[in-house]
Amino acid sequence: MKDIFRVRRMWRPRSELKKRYDVVIVGGGSHGLATAYYLAKNHGITNVAVLEQSYIGSGAAGRNTTIIRSNYRTPEGAEFYKRSVELYERLSGELDFNLMFSQHGHLTLAHTDSSLRVMQERAEVNQILDIDSRVVYPEEIARLCPQLDLSDTPTWPIMGALYHAPGGIIRHDAVVWGLARGADRAGAELHQNTTVTGIETDGGRVTAVQTNRGRVEADVFISATAGWSTLVCGMAGVRLPITTHILQAFVTEPVKPFLDVIIVSAQMHVYVSQTDRGEFLIGAEIEPYTTYKSTGTFSFLEYSARHVLELFPQLERLKVLRAWTGLCDLSPDYSPILGATELENFHLSAGWGTYGFKAAPIVGTTLAELVASGKTPTLIAPFALERFHSDTLVSELAAAAVSH
Q1: pTM summary value
Q2: Which of 329, 359, 377 represents a domain boundary (last residue)?
Q3: Are residues 249 and 307 in the same domain?
Q4: What is the C-alpha to C-alpha distance for residues 279 and 253, in angstroms, rounded to an integer?
């Protein structure tokens, strides 16, 4: 009878750290957990430790705004995120965990002629790569989202939009829990409340990490710590061209669902979606100042609410339920830094700005392949740290005018 009523944990309680692993991953967010999961699933590497300074999913993975899409501007970025969306589409079944992925469409609004030209360029890049993305105009926008104010009343009337049908939202907590459970059941160890305090190197390799729970050696080390990347990599002597900013978001009280597409306006610097609980989730751009302070600002709430009401005046009586911030590490070209570093066995996933959660499964897949084969997968080669020395940047600024 005891077995019948025994509560099964999502993953095993923390064990003692071993002195040595095949792979040590710093960061227990979606990227670190996905890498641990795919190391086991695709390559049979299970002697893996994931070190998280707080609790699993406490960082960017638990603070993002849940949007999944692939309609990026550069061929490298669009192809990369296309593969990630494809993995997300089957991840619930693979993990046997309901991730609540709803692909109900994504509209990036254009309010000027120049914005429309940018949307058309993005659509053409997307279509070449067989990504469902096209420019639509007010008549079709009205059918896709009749709740939008398409009159001349808003400060910036809507002239058109980039419509990305596969875009959608996914429950971020469920992604973290599902990947953590999958990695744990495959044999990886998840160590919460384990802070890396130092990194030892010798002969162009990392030999061990020092933690608040002791020293750990490994054959391969991976840094997957959004927001904290410069600090972690700095311990190993790896300098990153990254600055850290905060991103703010808030949700309203829940109401009966009526918005079934994601709305983004780069001109207004705002994006809006409705969650499965009926809350309106609203965000904007990263703050222009660099900081690690997780304090929200009234000015963000004021201008975000004002612009949302220009798009959806019917929301004026809704109350703000809660607001939060998250750390974003931003690279100079708004693209990630992914793969090998100058240290032979030290790899990283960093510089994601606000787009890291969208890439979790493809990051895990490609980093696992890099570890197992020792060769950089073609898909992530353009995002190497070396590009900042060779001047081969991958600028995603045109697709990154608002953080979503």
Answers
A1: 0.95
A2: 329
A3: yes
A4: 6
